[in-house]
Design brief:
The structure holds 2 protein chains of 2 kinds.
Chain A: H1 2-7, E1 23-35, E2 41-53, E3 57-61, H2 68-75, E4 83-88, E5 91-92, H3 98-108, E6 109-112, H4 124-134, H5 139-152, H6 168-180, E7 186-190, H7 198-213, E8 217-222, H8 225-228, E9 233-238, E10 241-247, H9 260-268
Helix pairs in contact in A: 4-5, 4-6, 6-7
Chain B: H1 2-9, E1 14-15, H2 16-27, H3 36-48, E2 52-57, E3 65-70, H4 72-83, H5 94-101, H6 110-134, H7 140-173
Antiparallel strand pairs in B: 1-3, 2-3
Helix pairs in contact in B: 2-3, 6-7
The chains are: A alpha/beta, B mainly alpha.
Chain lengths: 269, 174
């Protein structure tokens, strides 16, 4: 049955964009090979087809070395695929140059990393406002959005702190604010709780769930099942391939009448 | 349940309903709770075995209630229980049995079995997360219980991953 899911067509003839499903991301035949230091090629992603609909909360899970992070980086344009195609908001993006991707990310994609990647010599406020200013917001708009997000994330009064003065959980919340400052349609998170204690993990999961309930599309990579189970759909990656794609919580995914997860579940009966 | 009831009685005398309430409060919603009938039946058996003794207390407008306290033998049983390390969970595992006997039956594919089991565990994990969020934050015992169940599930999921790794390697060798 897993094979069914694997072979389900990733895209229709219109070139990956299905009119029925409101897709944020669509990918087809993604392949990415890394080279080790000694020059040996390692196939990290070996032919992945993937569609993410608007409003979905998807976890990509699997053992270390399965290609989870590489896949996420491909979707965020941080790596370029060796082959395969990617559409973001209906736009073919795998052919984009790095500079063009950078512009695209500012508008459409927010990314949260395991180790926060905040700019250490900037204040919390500046870390959050910077991407808004780069995307063309006025300073006033950026300040207003920053204030709104920091309040929403329970970070009032931390505006003038530097990242080093904050706990890990707080830093990750700042990173979340930064990722959401431009109302990105896609939030990518690479092991967002990977360096947090269990309290920080719960906090980040609670916030991700909250933004998901408000309609945010989220794709997160994790090896932690507790984190994965917060999502509505879990994709299991193994050896660079999708081996399972499951809806959690008995929910069916919208806009799918055949193939994909719900079809597989129905067949399983 | 026998020994947990005995241990609760080591705190002081109590009647059946009080004991049931104490267990509920302590363990929260995640733990499968005995119904009141099971509590009374167990208390009856413990009394017959001489581990507790009951005393009827008259109540004005209601039937008598029976209050129990530990006997010396009961106290010894509780001490022995605390003294013994507890059995580690299962070496027997029904899922593993399915996985082991599936090849050659023509009725189940091992990878499908693993995927199905993973979905089941992930859904169980999701239920536990919800339970944990719904549970009173200040009930540390109940929270720890849920956390323990989640860690067990995480281990089960890690183990499924190991099974899958081994199977893939076998497939590559073939």
């Amino acid at each position: 049955m897993s094979r069914k899911a694997r072979e389900a067509p990733a895209a229709d003839d219109a070139g990956g964009i299905s009119a029925a499903a409101d897709l944020v991301v669509s990918a087809e035949g993604l392949v990415k090979t890394h080279r080790t230091e000694s020059g040996t090629p390692v196939k990290a992603v070996q032919g992945v087809d993937l569609q993410i609909e608007r409003g979905e909360f998807v976890a990509i899970t699997g053992p270390s070395g399965a290609g989870k992070s590489t896949l996420l980086h491909l979707l965020g344009g941080l790596h370029k695929p060796d082959s395969g195609r990617i559409w973001l908001e209906g736009e073919r993006v795998d052919t984009y140059s790095e500079a063009r991707w950078a512009v695209l990310r500012r508008r459409h994609v927010g990314i949260v990393f395991q180790f926060f990647n905040l700019i250490s010599h900037l204040t919390v406020a500046d870390n959050v406002e910077l991407p808004a200013l780069l995307a063309g917001s006025s300073p006033r708009q950026a300040r207003a959005r920053r204030a709104e997000l920091l309040a929403d994330l329970g970070l009032e009064g931390k505006d003038n702190s530097t990242p080093g003065e904050l706990s890990g959980g707080e830093q990750q919340r700042v990173a979340l604010a930064r990722a959401l400052v431009n109302h990105s349609s896609l939030l990518l998170a690479d092991e967002p709780a990977g360096s947090l204690d269990s309290k920080g993990t719960r906090e980040v999961l609670r916030l991700l769930s909250r933004y998901h309930q408000r309609g945010q599309t989220i794709v997160l990579v994790t090896h932690d099942a507790r984190v994965a189970s917060a999502a509505d759909r879990v994709i299991s990656l193994f050896d660079g391939r999708i081996v399972d794609d499951a809806a959690l919580g008995g929910g069916t995914r919208p806009g799918r009448s055949k193939g994909g997860v719900s079809g597989t579940l129905e067949l399983k009966g | 349940m026998r020994l947990s009831l005995l241990a609760l009685l080591a705190r002081g005398p109590a009647h059946g309903y009080e004991l049931k309430q104490a267990l509920e409060k302590l363990l929260g919603a995640a733990y499968p709770q005995p119904n009141i009938g099971q509590v009374y039946v167990t208390l009856g058996r413990l009394e017959k075995a001489g581990l507790i003794e009951g005393e009827d207390i008259a109540q004005s407008s209601r039937p008598n209630k029976r209050t129990y306290q530990l006997t010396d033998a009961g106290r010894e049983a509780v001490a022995a229980w605390f003294d013994e390390p507890t059995e580690e969970p299962r070496v027997r595992d029904e899922f593993f049995m399915k996985l082991a006997v599936a090849p050659g039956t023509g009725m189940a594919d091992q990878v499908d079995l693993i995927n199905k089991q993973r979905r089941h565990y992930l859904n169980a994990m999701r239920d536990l997360s919800k339970l944990s969020a719904a549970e009173d934050r200040d009930n540390r015992v109940a929270q720890l219980l849920v956390e323990g169940a989640m860690l067990h599930l995480q281990a089960d999921l890690d183990w499924l991953e190991r099974c899958q790794e081994e199977l893939e390697q076998l497939e590559e060798l073939e």
